[in-house]
Write a structure and sequence with these properties.
Strand order of the largest sheet: 5-13-12-11-8-6-7
Helix content: 25-40%
Number of strands: 18
Distance between the termini: 42 Å
Largest sheet: 7 strands, mixed
Strand content: 15-25%
């Protein structure tokens, strides 16, 4: 796990090999840069996209307006959506209903690891949809068992529990941790039931996972949430020493790399300490790799970058390539505490979803693929420093693999909006001052060049907004 730092007191070189926007495609701590300044449906493989018109910076066409107005009438208003109505995608490109093209560095919030419309993934989904889609967990099914075998073979885990989302995977981890403590201390009236989580954490929006999420504005409207959660400063070993207690702490939940929290990475020392402290206290160590796992860090599992193994690991986002899935991976000692009826799900682990996930694993688990993610991640950070590093609002570029953050000293929203108007989709993170880049893992260096150029050209909007 290498760490790179570059002072911006050095000269900043502008990239000279950037190419113009390409035509649409038819039919350890993290490495950081510190700144001091089938059949029957084969037509789905042949997407037809109308040629995009030039992007406009203001106003919407009738088709977009119609969709956005209809959304406001029939859907619960839980999302502050960006004003784009997306209709199709191919590779790392998305197209809206008017045919405008966008380079996608958001990946559906770190979900579309293989991009959009990957042929092998589509074939797997079509073939399984024509064979068997859903049977529930009342029965055995081949794709579920095969996927579990592959997850176990490639990780620390001995067993898998499937869910439909990341927050559900964390809910399962909460229940398994509580059950483990009760199972291992059968004579205690009140076995360990508390949880340790960290600042800047995000573990989901259901009530248990929400209780583990540090941002108060997520929790406050729904208080009281699950009690017994203690928040500690992320990465602070000394502060954590006072909190992990034998007989009190059931589990410690931590993201090796925080995504929603701002692209902050744990240090090896911190995770090693948590491992040791949990062992001493009889608590379980839970790694939430919902955003940073499954190849995004350049390792199949982010914990491999640190050499620290958890008792439970939660997964979701990229696992099924855009279809809803989550997974809670556990050791045998944890699994031994869980009995028939302790937990369950109607839809989780369906044949269709598990077959899709196998197609994703076929690609992202290959050593050459993972090596390419590491290489492209370093390339992206270097380009960002060269092009953006001289701007006074850019404070740090950080990340590991293709989960990268650009920290600003002002709100990132104007920059995100300006990028979108220029054909680039990126996200915010942290306290709203971090630009989050989580592109498909299949993105090319040419496409990364294009993204960096758009970011660079959009930077003046930060001055315009900071002066208002």
């Amino acid at each position: 796990m290498s760490s790179t730092r570059a002072s911006l007191n050095q000269s900043i070189l502008r990239s000279s090999n950037l190419r113009p926007r390409c035509d649409p495609i038819w039919g350890r701590s993290s490495s950081l840069v510190k700144l001091t300044r089938g059949t029957g449906i084969t037509a789905c493989l042949n997407l037809e996209v109308t040629e995009p018109r030039a992007l406009r910076n203001s106003g919407f066409d009738d088709k977009s307006k119609e969709v956005m107005e209809a959304e406001g009438k029939v859907l619960v208003g839980t999302y502050a959506r960006a004003p784009v109505v997306l209709a199709s995608g191919r590779g790392c490109k998305l197209y809206d209903v008017e045919g405008r093209e966008y380079l996608d560095l958001s990946s559906g919030i770190a979900v579309n690891a293989l991009g959009h419309g990957d042929p092998d993934w589509v074939n797997a989904v079509v073939e399984q949809a024509n064979t068997l889609t859903h049977v529930s967990n009342v029965y055995f099914s081949l794709p579920q068992v095969e996927l579990a075998k592959r997850l176990v073979a490639s990780s620390f885990a001995d067993r898998v529990f499937f869910t439909n989302s990341g927050t559900e995977a964390n809910e399962a981890a909460i229940k398994f941790a509580r059950k483990f403590q009760r199972h291992t201390h059968p004579d205690e009236k009140e076995p360990a039931a508390e949880f340790i989580a960290f600042t800047n954490s995000f573990h989901g929006r259901t009530m248990g996972a929400l209780a583990l999420t540090s941002k108060e504005h997520y929790r406050t409207p729904f208080q009281p949430v699950m009690p017994g959660v203690i928040f500690v400063e992320y990465g602070n070993i000394e502060a954590t020493k006072e909190k992990i207690k034998c007989g009190k702490t059931a589990a410690v939940f931590v993201e090796p790399i925080q995504g929603e929290g701002g692209i902050y990475s744990a240090t090896r020392d911190f995770l090693q300490y948590l491992r040791s402290a949990c062992d001493d206290a009889g608590a379980l160590l839970v790694f939430d790799e919902i955003q940073c796992g499954l190849g995004r860090s350049g390792y199949l599992w982010a914990y491999e970058a640190y050499g620290v193994y958890p008792d439970i690991m939660t997964l979701a986002k990229p696992l099924a390539g855009g279809l809803p899935i989550g997974a809670c991976l556990v050791t045998e000692k944890v699994a031994s505490a869980v009995k028939y009826g302790d937990h369950g799900s109607t839809f989780a682990g369906s044949p269709l979803i598990c077959k899709a996930a196998q197609a994703v694993l076929d690609k992202i688990s290959k050593p050459d693929f993972l090596a390419s993610v590491k290489k492209k991640g370093e390339y992206l950070k270097q380009k960002l420093v060269q092009k953006l590093g001289g701007n006074s609002h850019v404070k740090e570029v950080r990340g590991l693999g293709l989960i990268v953050g650009i920290e600003l000293d002002v709100s990132a929203s104007p920059l995100v909006d300006a990028c979108r108007n220029s054909g680039l989709l990126v996200l915010t993170a942290g306290k709203g001052n971090v630009v989050r880049l989580v592109p498909p893992l299949v993105i090319t260096e040419e496409e990364l060049d294009q993204a960096v150029e758009i970011l660079f050209n959009a930077l003046p909007v930060l001055d315009e907004n900071s002066s208002n």
